[in-house]
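In practice, a research group might receive sequence data for several interacting partners and want a quick structural hypothesis before committing to experiments. The following worked case mirrors that situation: the sequences arrive first, and a predicted assembly follows.
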Amino acid sequence: MMARIHVAGLGHRGTVKPGNDDHYCIGQWVEQSALVAVSFDTGAAFFRDYGLLAAVADGMGGYAGGAFASRVALEILQAQFYAERRGGCNREEFTGHIRHCLVQTQGLLAGALRRQQGLEDAGTTIAGVAMMPPDLLVVFHAGDSRVLLGCGGFVRALTVDHTPLGADLAAGRITEQEAAAIPGASRLTRSLGATVDCEVELGSEQSWAAGDWLLAGTDGWHGPGRGLGRASIRQALDREPEVASLVSRLVAASVEADGVDNATLVAIRVEGGGDGGG
Amino acid sequence: MTVVDDRTRKIAPPEDGGEEGTGTRKLAMPAGPVTAGPPAMPLGRLAPGHVLCGDCTVEQTIRPHESQRPGIYRCVAPEGDVIVKVAPAAHPPRSDVWEKLPELVHPNVLRTYRTTEEGGFFFEVQEYCNGGTLADRLTRGDKSFTTVTADWVLTQFVPQAHSGLEYLHARDIVHRDVKPSNIYCQRTAGGGEILVLGDFDISAVLDRTHTSRDTQRVAGTWYYTAPEAFPRFVDERGATRSTRVTRMADYYSLGVTIVELLQGTTCLHMCELPDLFDFYLQGSVVAIPENIPERLSLLLRGLLIRDRRARWGAEEVGRWLRGEVSAGDRRRISEDAAYVLPRVSHPYRLKEHSPVDLPGLADAMYREPEAATEDLMSGDILLSWIGAIDANKAREIRSVRERLRQKPDLALLAAIMVCDPFRPYIFGDGQEARSAGEWLDHMGLLPAGEAASEDRLSRLATWLRFKWEPDERLAEGVEGIIASPPAVRLEELSYLVDPARPYSIAPGLEAATPEAVARAAYGNPEDWSRTIPNCYNASFRRWQEGYLHAWMRQRGLGSLAEQAAEVEEGLSEHPFAAFEAVLRLLCPELPPVQVELDLARVRGGLRVPYGQSRTVTLPYATTGCGVPFGGLEIEDGQPGISLSDQLIRSRSGAARLKLDSRGGLPVSRSFRARIRLTSGYAVLAGGGVSITYGVRLPAALTLGRIGLGLLLGGIIFGLPRWIISELGITVAPPPAYDAEWLWEAIRAGEWPYLYFIGSAAMIGGACYAGWRVWLWAMSKSES
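A structural hypothesis for the assembly, expressed as C-alpha cells:
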C-alpha cells in the first residue's frame, strides 16, 4: 500500500533578534520565513529517483554572515543531493551519497565564506534527514540543531548535540535546564563552514515507516533551556495531524515560550501505507 | 501500557526481626487471625493427665505454650500416640494452610489428624514420630560433625523427601521451611524408617487466585532460604521488597539440607542475616561437598541453581531419580555456573524503584510500565544504563525499540524480557504462564474473543520471542493468528501449540486427520433419513466461523486451506456447496451426493399440442449423505424443451421442465431428451434420465390443411386444360386416365405426358404454397 509523505517548514526570527539567520530546505526549496508545505505519494517519480532532503541550518557569525552561511549551505547541499538520480540504491550507497554531499557542501561553503569580506568566522549548524524508498533514512547533523522522531505517542531525539555537554544530556547525566545554566555549555564542537575538516555526523541505522513524524529544528525551536520542551512537542503531535498546521503551531509556540532565538522547523509526516515504503 | 498488569502487592519489610534464631519461625498474618476475639493467655507447661482437645491426655510437655512460641505436647488420643501442637497466642495459624492440614495424607508428609479451635486456642493433633528429626543426627562436636552417608541420601532421603514435596506442591502448598529439624523419622515395625516432612508453620498455599508473590517470606530459617527470597533491589526509602517464593524455593532448601546432611554444615551456617543478603546479592553459590558421587553432585548443582526459574524442581528431580537427566537439565546447571551477576555502580531510578541489575530493572519496568515506556521510547538514558551492564542487550533493545516504535507497550515487554529472559508471562490477575500451553490454560477461562484479542496475542508473541529459549516459530504462528476471526483465535492457538490436537468437529466429536474430519462431519448415513443431522450442522457452522480453516492452517495443511479458501470464494453464495467441496478437499474419497429425479409426471412421454407450451414439475430428492449442488441440464440442446429452476442446492426440491411447440418444432415426430446433473460432487441416480416428447397436431386443423391443399391442387390441376382449350390448342384427348394409357403416352413422348408432369408440378406447388400460408397464418394468430 502506498504511503504519503507530508512535509512543511517554517522559520521565525523570534522576538529579540533583529533578523533571522536560520534557513531550511525542503527538496530543492531553500526558505527562511515562508511556510512551504508539500505532499506526495511515495510512488512519485521524483521521490523514487531522487528521494527527499529536508534540513534546517542555524547560521552564526553575525546576522549577515549567519544567514548567508545557512542559506548557502542548504543551497549547496540540495544541489549536490539532487545532482543525479539515486533510485534503487541500497542503504550503504545512499549513506555514502549523503556523506559525499555533506563533504562537498562543507568544502564549497568554506570557500564561499572565505571569498566574502568579513565572513571568515561565519558558519552554520545543520540538521536534517534524507529519505529514499523503500524505507531508507539517513539522519545528519552538525551542531546543536536537532532531529526528533515522533512515533507511538513518544518523541525522542535522533541526534546528540555537538556541544560540550551534548553526550551528558543524551545519557541523562544532566538535564536540559541544568545544561542551560552552565556557561559555555552551548558552544558548538562541530559546525559547517567554521572549520574545513568538520565532520557531519550521520546516522543510517534508522528506517522511516508509516506513522512516523520526523522533526528537524534549530535550537531556537527546541534546545537546552530554549524554545519548546519535549512534552509540548509530544502533545502537539498527538493533537495536530496536519503537518502545515503543526509546523505553524510549534513555531508559534516556541516563539511565545522563548522567542530569544530564531526558531525554524521542518516537519515530515509519513501517512498510511503500513509497510513504510513506497 | 498493559504489558502485564501489575497487581502485585507491595510487601512490607519483616517487622519481626527478632524471630531470627528462635529455631521455629512464626506465622505471618496477612489475612488476619482466623477468628476475632481477645488473645487467650498462654497454656504454658501442662501437667501429665491434662486433657486437650477433649480427648488428648497430655503425657509430656515437649515445649510449653507461650505467646510467641507454639506449645508442643505428647499426648495419648484415640488415634494413638499423638503430638498436640497449640499455636502461639500472638500468632494464630494461617487459615488457608490450617484448614488444609487434615486433608494431607501421604506417607512422607506429617499426618495431621485434626485441627480444632477451643477457647481461642488453635490445636493441631498430629502424628507422633518416634525417630526424632534429621537434625538430631547432625550432632556438632568441637571439631567435627556427625553426618549421614551419601548412599543413604541417594537411596533413602532424596526419594522420600521428593515424594513428600511433590505431594505438597500438587496441592499448592509450599513448605517454605524445609530443613533437617523439620524432617521426622518414623520407625516401622520391620526396622525400617520413613522420613516425614513436618512443621507447616510458615507454609503458604498458592491458591489459584493469588500469585506466589503474596506469600512473602517474613519468617523461616534463613540458612535454607532460596536466593529469590532475598531482595534484589531496594527502593528509595530503603525498604526491601520480597520477590517470589514458589515451589522452587523448597527444592533449594532441600539442596542446602542435603549439603548439611553430608558435611554437617554449610557455608551459609556461618553467616548472619546481612551476610546472607550479601552472599546472594553478590551471586555467590553454595559450595557442594567434594568426594561425593557424581550423581549426587549433579543433583545438588541442579537444586542449588541460583535462578529459581532455571532451578531443578519436581520434574527434574523425578528425571534424576529415574536416571533420565536431560541435556536441558545439564545445560541449566552449566549456564548457572557461568552466570556472573552484572552490576553497575549506580542504581537506575524509575519512580520509587532503584534497580541495580538487569533482572531488577525488568521487575521495576514491569511495576512502572508508564514511566518505563517513557524512558524507553523518549530517550537513550535507560539504554545507556543497560549498556553499562550489557552492551549486547542494550543493542538488542535499541533494535527492538526501532522495530516496535509504533507499539510502545510491546517494545517495553520486549525490553523487560531482554533484561530478564526468565520472566514468565504475567497476566492481569497476577497469574503466570511459563509456556504457550499454560497461557492457553489461563485464557481458556475467558470468553474466546476477549481472551485472544490482538493486543494479548501480540504480547504473547513478543514474550515467546524474547523469553529464555525463544520460540520464533511459535511467535510467528501467534502473530499469524491475529488475522483470524477473534472467536477462532484461541482455538487456533491451541492447534498451533499442539499440532497433534484433533479437530473439534462438534461438541464431543473430534477427528485427527482430514479424512476423519470429513467423514465425521457426515456422520452415519442413517441419520440423514429425515433431516440433516446435528453433527453435520454443527460442523458446517464451525466451518463457517473459521475453525476448520484454523485447524488446517496449524495442522500443516496450508495448501489445502488455500484451496478451500478459493473454493469458498467461488461459492460464497452457496455455503453448503462450498462446505461440501471443502469436505471433498479433505477427503477426496468421500462418496458423491446422490440425487434422484421423480419422473412420474413424464413417464410415457411428454406431448404438447402444436402451437402450445406445457410446463411439468420434476421433483428431486437426495438419497444418502450430503447436500447436493449442481445444475440440471438437457444434453445436446434438444429442440422445444427447456429446464427452469434447474439449480439444485438443497436436499430436496423441484425443477421445471417446459415443452414448447411454438417456433417450428417438427410435428409428428418423437424426440428423446436426456437430463443430466452438472456438479462437482453430486450425481443423478443412474447417471441421468431420458424422457420422450413430441408435438401432437390437432385433427381438424390437419384435415382442413389437406382439404385446402386438394382444393388448391384441383384448381391448379384444371387450369392448364382451361388454358389449352381457350387457346384452341388441339390435343388428342386421352381415352382414359389409366395407368396403361399414361405409360404408353410417356413412352410415345406424347403431349399428355408433358401435360401430366406440368399438372403434377402445379399441384405440388399449390400444396406447398397452401401449407406455407397456413403456417404463416398460424404464427400470426399465436403472436
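Before designing any experiment, note the following. The longest strand of chain B covers residues 613-623. Chain B is about 40% helix and 15% strand.
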